[in-house]
Amino acid sequence: MEKQVTDKTSENAGSSKGKNIIQLKGIIKRFYIGQPNELEILHGIDLNVKEGEFVSIVGASGSGKTTLMNIIGVLDRPTEGEYMLDGVDVSKAKDKELSGIRNQKIGFVFQTYNLISRTTALRNVELPMMYAGVGKKERQERAKYYLEMVGMQDRMTHKPDELSGGQKQRVSIARAMTNNPSIILADEPTGALDSRTGRKIMDIFHQLNQKEGKTIVLITHSNELAEETQRIITLKDGEIIGERKGSAVC
Amino acid sequence: MLIGENILLALSGLLANKMRALLTMLGIIIGIASVIAIMSVGNSISTSVTSSMEALGVNNITLGVSQKSTEDTVTSDGRVFAGISRGSEMSDDDYITDEMLEAMKEEFAGSVDSVLLSESAGSGTAEDGSLTANVAVTGVNEAYLEYEDLALLAGRTLTERDQENAKNVVLVSDKLADSLFGGDYDAAIGSEVKIYISNRYYTYAIVGVYEYDDSSFSTESDDNVTTTVYLPLEAARQQNHSSTGYSQLTIVTAAGVDSASLCDELETWFNNRYYHSNDSFEVTASSMESMVSSMTDMLSTVSIAISVIAGISLLVGGIGVMNIMLVSITERTREIGTRKALGAANSSIRLQFITESIVICLTGGFIGIILGLLLAAAATNLLGYAASPSVGGIVFSVAFSILIGVFFGYYPANKAAKMNPIEALRYE
Fold this sequence. Notes:
The structure holds two protein chains of two kinds.
Chain A: H1 2-15, E1 20-31, E2 39-50, E3 54-58, H2 65-72, E4 80-85, E5 88-89, H3 95-105, E6 106-109, H4 121-132, H5 136-149, H6 165-177, E7 183-187, H7 195-211, E8 215-220, H8 223-227, E9 231-236, E10 239-245
Chain B: H1 3-16, H2 18-55, E1 60-67, E2 73-74, E3 80-81, H3 98-107, E4 112-116, E5 118-128, E6 131-140, H4 142-148, E7 152-155, H5 160-164, E8 169-173, H6 174-181, H7 185-188, E9 192-197, E10 200-210, E11 227-232, H8 233-240, E12 248-253, H9 259-273, E13 281-287, H10 288-331, H11 333-341, H12 346-383, H13 391-417, H14 421-426
Parallel strand pairs in B: 6-11, 8-10
Antiparallel strand pairs in B: 1-12, 1-13, 2-3, 4-12, 5-6, 5-9, 7-10, 9-10
C-alpha cells in the first residue's frame, strides 16, 4: 500500500514541468553495518524533485528526516540505491568529488546558521566561492549582490555576534546562494526564530523560488510551514508515507 | 590559492586570542631566542679572535729552542722524582745556527717561503738634548722587513749591503721623527740618533722613516708609545756580542701549505738531525693556525651543546603548539563541519590548520629572533666584542620554525580534515 503511494509520487512528479533535478531510487541507509546493533534508518526511498520546485519534507523526530537530508546534501552516501543530482550519479562519488558537488550544486541553510563567528558577514558569504576558487574581486561583488538581495546591505561588515538570529539566517541564505547552486537545502531554517522573523525568512525562500527559480527542499517538523510549499512529503519510520500538494502555486 | 586567505585567517585568530597565542608561542620564542643569542655571541667571539690572530699571521710557524723535560726517575727504594727541567743555561751549541737554516731551506724548499730572523738589541730612549722618545731596537734580516711591509715616508729601507756590512744604520718611526726632529722627515734622514740602552749610548745613522701602525695592540698613551728602531741583523748581533745562532725565529710558509703538519715535520727534522744527542734542549714548532682552529673547535662544541638544549626547548614548544592546535580544532568542530558542507575538500581543511600552525611557529620564531639578537647585542657589548649576528642562525631559525609548524601541525590538521561532516555539524 505504501509502496503504491511512493510510485504515485514519482508519476506525479514526472508529469509536472521541467526535468528532475533530484532523483532518489531505492535509497537504503544502514548504520553499524556488520555489527550486532546494525540499524536500518531508511528503507528504500524513491523521490524525485523537479527543477524550480519548492518541496518540503516533514516528519516527526526519528523519522529519518535528517538522514535523508544528509544524503540529499551529499554529506553522506546511501548504503544502497541510486542518487542522481542534476544528472550526476553521486551515490558512488569519491570524497573529493562530493565536496566539489556540495560546493557547486548545493546551498545549505542550517537551523543554527553555522556562520563563522570570527569573521564578517561579507567574508562568511565569500567562503563557498573561496573553495570554488573564485577571484577576490568577483567574490566580493557577488557576496555584496546576494547580501543586498536578502536585505543585509547595511550590515556586511558586522560579525555574526553583532547580528540578530533573523539577520544571521539572512546571511546564511546569501551564503547558500553565492555559487548559484542547483538546490537550496534548508534544514529547519526557522526553528530557532520567533514566528515573525521566521515568516520573513520564509518570504525570502518564496522569493528565491519564484523570482530566481531556485529549487528548494525544506526540511521541517512544522506542518504549518510545509503547507506553504508546492509539495509536501511525509516521512515516517524511514519510509515515505504520503505526499500531497501544498498551497503554493506551481 | 587559499594560502593567502589562510594566513590572514590564522593571524586574525592569533590576534583574537593574544594571551593564549603568546603562551603557546613561549616555548618556541625561548628556544629560538637562545639559539640565535648563542650562535651570534659565538660568531662574534670567533670572528674577532680569528681576525686578531690572522693579523698576527696564521700561517706563520714559530720555531724555538726549548728545554727537554726529563723522564720520571724511580729510585731503588721506590720514590718517584717527577721529570723536571734541568734549568741549565743555553750554551753556544744549543742555538739554531745559520747552517741549520740553510739546510732546512733546502730540505723544505717547497714549503718554506722565507725565514724571519730578529734579534733584540734592547729597549731604551732615543735622546736629542731634552727631546726623548721610547724605542725598542731590533736587529732584523731582509725577509723580516719584507714581511713587515713597512710604509716608508722618507729615505730608503735597509739594503743587502747594510746587512752584509753590519752597518749601524736604522729605520725609525714617524713618531720618533716627530719627537726628535719636529716632524721634518727629510732633516731626520742622514742625521744620527743617540739611543740610551742599559747605561750606554749607541749611535746610529737614520736612513729611513716608516709610518707607525696604530692598530697594533698598545695600551700606552700616544705620547710615550714605544716604537721599533730597525737595525741590520748582523749589526745587532755584533752589538750583543752573539754570533752563535737563534733561540727563536719565524717561518713564513708558502701559499697552500698546511702549517700544522709542517710544524710536525720541522720538529722531527730538526730534532732527528741536530738535537738527537742534545740532552737538555730540543726544537719545538707551533703555528697560529692550530691555535685558531682549536679555539674555533672549542667554541663550536660549546655552541652545539647549548643549541641541543635550546633544541629541547623547541621540541617542548612544538608539543605546546600541537596541544593548542588540538584544543582549537575541538573548539572549532562545527566550523570545520560548516566548511565541509560548504564544499571545503579535506585537503583545504588540512592546509588551513597546517598554515595556522606554521603561522604560530613563525610568529614565535620572529619574536625569538628579535629577542635573541637583542640578547646577543647586550652580551657581546658586555664582553667587549663587536656584535656579529649569525645569518646562518637566523636562516636556520626561520626554517626550523616552519618545520616545527608542519611537524606538530600535521597531526591536528589531519584530524580536522578527516572529521565526518555530519558529526562535526552536530557537535555541541
